Amino acid sequence: MTAPVRTVNAEGIELIKTFEGLKDGGPDTPGLEPYLDPIGIPTIGWGSIWGIDGKRVTMEHRAISLEEAEGLLRRELFHTRLSVQRMIRVPLTDNQFAALASFTYNLGGGNLQASTLRTKLNREDYFGAADEFPKWRRAGGVILPGLVRRRAAERALFLA
Q: Model's pTM, two decimal places?
C-alpha cells in the first residue's frame, strides 16, 4: 500500500510564498503576467516555470488570476511533495518535510536527488543534512542574496 502524500505545513507554505514572491511582469495590466526570475527564466505566479496549460512558461503566456496562481502553487507542490517522499527514506518531522519541500520547489527534484543533503539525510545524519542547505545559494553560477536568506530560513525550519 502506498503512503498518503504528506502535506506541507503553514510554515513551509509561508516560506515558499515569501521567497518566491508573487510578482507581476505587467503591473499596468490586469492579472499576473509572466516575469523573468533573477537568472532570466520566464516564470509566473509564485515562481512557477509551468503555466496553467501545463507548458513551460514563456513571456508570451497570458496573465493569470490570483486564484490560478494558487492553483499552480498547489499543483507544483503536489509534485514536489511526491519527489521528497520518494527520495527521503528516513522519518521527518513536519518542519523537516516543509523545509525539504521549499528546497525542492525552488531547485527541482533532480537537484535534491543529486544532493549531498539527501545522501546525508538518508544516512540519518540530520545535522549534517541541515548544514548542506547553505551550500545551495547559487543561480546561474552567481551567489544570490535571496538564496542565501532562503537557505538559512529552510535550515532553521528543518532544525526547528
A: 0.94
